[in-house]
Amino acid sequence: MEYDPSYQQICSTRTVQSDKKGFFNEFYLDVKEACGDKWLQNYFGKLKSNAARILSIFSDREICDPVLGVLEHVQPVYKEKDVLVSSQRRAQADKFQLMSSNAELEEDRKELLKQALMHANLAVMRAPAPQLDMSVDNGLSLALAYRTRASILIGLGEGEAALSDLKLATNFGMESKQSVDYYCKMAKAYAVMAESARAEISLKIAEKLAGAETAIIAACRKDIAGLKAVKREPAQKALAPALAHGENPALSGAANVVKLVETKDKGRFVVANEGLKTGDVVLSENPVAACLLPNFFGTNCHHCFKRLHTPVACLHCSGIAFCSAQCMGEACETYHRFECQFMDLFIGSGMSILCYIALRIFTQAASLEDGLQTSNLLFEHLVSHQDVRQPDDYLQRSLMAGFLMRILQKAQYFGHRKTEGVNPTAVELQVATSLLGLLQVLQYNAHEIYHTMVTDEHCFEGCKVIYLGAGLYGTGSYFNHECWPSTAGYYVGKRLVMAATKPHRPNEIVAVNYGPIFSKMNLKERQRSLRGRYAFSCNCMTCQENWPLLQKIDKQVRFWCTSANCVNLLKFPKDLAKDVRCPRCRKNISLKESVAKLIKIEELYREAAEAMQAQKTNEAIDLFKEGIDTFFQIAALPHKDTLIAQQALLKCLANTGSTFKK
């Protein structure tokens, strides 16, 4: 297909800056105007290495002044804590909780408690770290916010979450060993969990601490008597399935049934090592790095991407949240300590999610040296298409790499610097060079991460894929594209899982889809999109045969010739009573058995659809697997019912991954 450089430049730009309203776009345009097109094309565009490009933007007189002028002004911009706002929100939470205790209807009581929980969550998010601001609550605003939320959670019957908040309250300064209130709340939390023995032990401790103040204990016992005990089943956590025949020792995260091969025209890609069956898990891989989209900072855990219910706050900023103290600790001990004070600056710049990932590869690394090693290995092994990049593209990515390097300088990633100036040291230039390489690699290798939103009524009807973030997967990046993929990709947290949606012969490509899919996009549109976004033209079977859109595919099917060693495809016979002559092997064959199997296959698809309707996910998966495997023994795509069955199988597999309710 004819190369369209302008369309490719548009696609490429979106992978650096997702929002043109951000200040980075203005920065880039100002620098481009200052250096002039002649210098850009005749000098910068002819530089041969990323190191030379980075050195150029910081040292060449045609460009360095506007670059340094902007980067000098990079400062922390983030949503700070506010003890007064936290205190006000806590007061609102107390107000709604008090109103709930006077509500006559259970429905009204729960609604008021939900309002109270919303305010308590905000109180937690805005409260500063303990002893940081002594002007309000004697520096204990965070502990008090967690304690307030624990009371609300008890009222909602969420004892386990209440216990977690009580523990956090003590961690952040609330007295527990001598606190009657603490043990009374603990007793109530155990009571709503239907753990009466533990509730009684907690109450006995409270009674001992209360001494002569028996009224407190009597009131607590009365409250417990009015609580509705609910023995909750532990929440079913999505688990990554086992790899087919174990893990491949030569290919991290991949199954033994696949292998990596390399050809001159396709580079390195994954094929079946031996026969694959439908449903075989071929990949289960954690990301090299993954980042949450800014739109979900308030609704999902910044670390594991889990949907938030009772957020745990970063101790220093109010812009992001975690699902647990564990996630908060893991993030704040590694990457978030460098990113924390710049979160709003990232958003304001308009930089794309891929820029977040490039930065994260360094901020999460155990050391600067580890960050350099990881980024350099990725640049060496993954495609970056340097041969098709325009000078404009290199300039834009170089400026972004410089901006990210400046963030690291200001965050003291490189340790204490002798000067506050931008001019980078030799090590800082290495990091900026590696960041530039990552920004090229990520354009073609990052995966969008999604979870499935389901309704209260049904796990399939009304479900919706929600893209939460993006990640880079080392082995996952080696899977090539086809316009009708042979695998289904879904996520368990941030872990990418791929399962086969058809049987594969040995050495057959195991393919994913990069976005342009035949069922929704015609051949010309797909080729333009792939060329513009990924710099290649597709020649998969779907493209070679130019399959029509899914809605336009008829019910006809092409059967394999039943003669031994013949690989010819035959049309559906007009008369089943008569044999069909194969033009390839020149034998007369009967297709009666193939047609009978097709009828059985379509019955399996119907049974699988009924299992989905009954929300029997695993049963539906098994039926789809059996039907699809049998279909490929007798026939070839495109076959409308089988294509729909493969789509439904993906839906079922995704339902076994990470889901959440709106």
From TrEMBL:
GO terms for molecular function: histone deacetylase binding; methyltransferase activity; zinc ion binding. It comes from the Eukaryota. This is GH16068. It comes from Drosophila grimshawi. InterPro entries: SET-MYND_domain_protein, SET_dom_sf, SMYD4_SET, Znf_MYND. GO terms for cellular component: cytoplasm; nucleus. Gene3D superfamilies: 1.10.220.160, 6.10.140.2220, SET domain. GO terms for biological process: compound eye photoreceptor development; eclosion; methylation; negative regulation of gene expression. Residues 301-340 form the MYND-type domain. The keyword Zinc applies. The gene is Dgri\GH16068. Keywords: Metal-binding, Methyltransferase, S-adenosyl-L-methionine, Transferase, Zinc, Zinc-finger.
